[in-house]
Amino acid sequence: MRASTVRVYPKALHSRTISPLDIPEILYHIFAFIDHFTLAKAVVLVCRQWFLMNRHRVVRHELWDANFTVRRVKGIVSRMPGTVRLSWSSGTDRLQEELDWVLLRKTLEQTHAQYLWRQQEQQQQDCVKFPNKCGRQLQDVISTLPFIDGPLKELELFGVVDDCKRLASIQSALPFLTRLKLQWRKTSTFHMDQLLLSCPLLEVLYAESTEGLELPGPWIPSAIQRKGAANHPILALKSLVLKNARLLQTSLENLLYHTPLTELRLVNLLQNEWLYWPFFSDVAYNWTELYQSLKRVPHQLKSFHFSVQDQTMTDPDLKAMMFGVCPSSTEWTFRAKDLTPTLTRYLNELPNVVTYLELFWPERAHCRPDSSLHAYLCASPHLLHLKAPNTALLFDLLDLHHRVDFDYSQLYSQDDCLISVSHRSQDSQSPSKVWKCRNLRTLHLAFHNHGLSLLTSPTHSRVLFGYISRVCPQLRDLEIHIPEQTRWMTCDYHFPNMDMRLHGGFCLLTRLKHLERLCIGRVTQRMSFDPVHLNWMVASGHSSKYRAERRSIAAGWAEQIMVEKRHEDRRMERAQNERGGDESLNKMEESLEASLTRDLQLLGLVLDVKEVLDEMDEKGYRCWPVLQRVSVFNDRGVGLRPADELMRLFPPKSSKLYR
After folding, report:
1. Residues 500 and 519 in one domain
2. Would you say which domain of life the source belongs to (predicted)?
3. Cβ atoms of 638 and 629 closer than 8 Å
């Protein structure tokens, strides 16, 4: 996409005092600090001058889901010219999936051909109209500037069951691709050399598959390798993340010398167990040889990870990976069970603070009451991004005031041995520690409770949503997962559904004013209550009619609020008598800022939700002003616009959302 500088000096400059906003250079500097979402939704709509100055920086993102109607898919196809980022998710029906893929392939080929034709036409017009480009006037430039036009540069494919030919069938239409993300559900295969040859500008590649991903070698295209010089990067690839992959280590080591890689994460590499691999039968990984190859690479990595399925790295190897490969890194990935006291000590010994931490596990990791992850979060004020969707954190650690009575029966240890844990009474337990990562931007985490209570009560939801909204007010990306439970008598799986009604406190997350993406749960469940409990997410849900309905629902909480107040008064009085004075509150005051302490006093109470609903009635209130994608109990993790997600949750009642 070409970016041309357009100087626009209004005629009024000669008759009035010049404003800083009249000078293009100052405007360019100001616009550089504005995010792409605000540029696309507000800035380019102000005037022609602002549009011309920012049209080349607008990133148009399209979401294409297989469950969309035919009419909506046609609309997406018509908007594909000029789309920079595309997220495509397939369905579960194999026949429909094949039809969707054919439509996607034809759309990409047609869009690419149209872009090449428009570029050729533009060059011919420039040569005819402006043989001498000096002295071009603004009125001449405007007529030749296209709208927001550019090739597809970022592609995300979710749920594709690849047959080793599908990805290759669209690569010819992706020569300008710079970022590719693949998340497949079944065993999949693709050829790295074909991909790098077809996409020479590719800088970021993220690929994972639930059951396994095979990458046959060699990875370096022979046509490109012959043109490159020795020990000189000939490819653009800077970031490579592979999860659940099976590969030849020699192909990987050869790639290191031909790409300027700064990020390399090989997570849970597979060997020769329970999968059928057609391309090579014997695979082995040698950490020592890979470590020596990494040390010989002329450029240094900024982020690195290496792990093999069912193999635990020794402490010396783990220390070598952290301090020998990229000791100055601030981004780290580990397996969930690797977060041991030894690893925590290594993290504290690194020369740089950790700002990005990812904990990977192929299935839900077992959790104990003495969670090492919770302890790490309580001692890491500099952490900005935490991705641990399969790591379950014990809910009791968030319930600071013990507003939910827990019944711990028997817990599974990491060795699948039954151990019993006695629940400490509320009166004798000291206050839980609170996370120090107040500036957290990304949080992907699961929450779990052992025993009979399955986090389904409104109090559970209020504590969870209230804690996150108060402790992490700067969140941009939030995923909350509730792992499945196994019933002790029948041994079948139960998927808890958090209470999403008003008194469940989901609206407490509206305090996150910077939230851009929200995902709740990973198992599809339909809502059985009235849409008024959730339609506050869209502008139409703040009409006088729906506000009155929400006030009517909140009026029924008066008695419960009085009961909670009496209970809290008795609890505080009992705590003062038994602990002596206000010792527990003093301890919390010492560990938290005074403002956060006051905010957390209402954690888990209905009064906390009532205050948020009162705030919604204020004039000019905006719910999640920059939220772009939301997914509520949906196993398709792409996410939709809030209005589209509500229509999916309440299909028979969707018309009520806009009345």
Report:
1. yes
2. Eukaryota
3. yes
